[in-house]
Amino acid sequence: MKSVIISIIMFLFLILIHEFGHFIIAKKSGIKVNEFAIGMGPKIFSKQKGETLYSVNLFPIGGYCAMEGEDDESNDERSFDKAPAYKRFFTILAGPLINLIFAGLLFSFVAFNTGKPSTKIKEFTENSPIKSQGFKINDEIYKVNNKEINEFSDISKSLEDFYKNHKKDDKIPVTLKRNNKYIDKSVKVKFEDKRPILGFIPKNQKVGFFESIIIGTKQVGSMISMMLIVLKNLFTGKLGFSALSGPVGVVKEMGRQANLGIMNLIFFLGYISVNLGFFNLLPIPALDGSKIFTSLFEMITKKRINKKIEEKFTIGGFIFLLGLILLVTIKDLINLF
Per residue in 273-298, pLDDT tens? Predict the structure, then answer.
């Protein structure tokens, strides 16, 4: 129960910083903010401060920064709708952007404290193919397919490149380093989810502050690339509805990661923050991406998209997203039992 409560608080914190991104840039841009809320549904706490109402709502599944004239008509000169296109663009972009920056900081923190995977063998996985082929603990993977390995991720790249043009049963040349001696081997690998693997867990090596920042930034880029692939697979039918997870599934997984250790939880929090940032950049009505797109369109063409048409698409997108969240939440609740 404790881990679930912590998970809900962390999930709401990610939403808080997302909405704060919109809020702070709106304020700096002179756009009127009517309400800043965490959670959805009935209010359980609210306080008026200046022109803005600050609220905490009952259901911990979202939040919002309600700006004057954002989704309806307004004659207020400080309304979102009357702000220049570049101010609207940066106000909306700030939400997803702050999530991506925060994720990078979390990944950097984890890397600084745990290090990065090296090319040395710490232990073998279950049914490891290389364990039975003469590899030992502390061996260093020096070359794969005659390509020098500089970091752990190079191993999987070299394996995948080799098996694009070879059969699964073909052996791949691997050079290992043991006691300052180089040993050449022909290795038969194992396939998991169509991916060739050697079957070992690497030792971690310490990294400095600046290197940890680089690692964190690369991790964000890597996850965005992975999400683009997932999105493509969802549209092409390679991935089904069961691959999606909603707030209940996220909180459940956060609780599981919390039990595995603080660094696992922080890393997973970064992963969710990337998700939140990435999906809000997609040009889907009712998400930030649609307003980013329309503002950018206006900045480039100097033409405004018809407000009524935009409102209809936003309402349709909102209904679609609510329905999707409801279906995914029902699926997640069923999986809990």
Answer: 998 999 889 888 778 888 899 899 89
- Provide the 3-class DSSP secondary structure of residue 29: coil
What number of other Cβ atoms are within 10 A of residue 172's Cβ?
A: 19
- Amino acid making up residue 274: V
- Tell me which residue of 28, 46, 49 sits closest to 37, measured CA to CA: 46
Length of the chain: 337
CB neighbourhood size of 169 (10 A): 7
Task: Tell me the pLDDT tens digit for each residue of 185-213.
Answer: 998 998 987 889 898 999 998 999 999 99
The structure tokens listed for 104 are 């990078």
CA-CA-CA-CA torsion sign (196, 198, 201, 206): negative
Token pair belonging to 87: 């101010």
Known catalytic residues are 19
C-alpha distances (whole Å) from 134 to each of 145, 157, 180, 194 are: 18, 23, 17, 24
* Alpha-carbon distance values, 164 to 49, 130, 247 (Å): 61, 21, 38
Helical axes 307-336 vs 288-301, angle rounded to 10°: 150
Contact 81, 40 (CB under 8 A): no
Handedness of CA 220, 225, 228, 232 (dihedral sign): negative
What is d(CA 162, CA 144) in angstroms, rounded to the nearest whole number? 9
What's the pLDDT at 137? 93
Closest alpha carbon to 143 in 171, 179, 180, 184 = 184
Three-state DSSP class for 176? strand
- Name the CA dihedral angle for 154, 258, 327, 62, rounded to a multiple of 10 degrees: -100
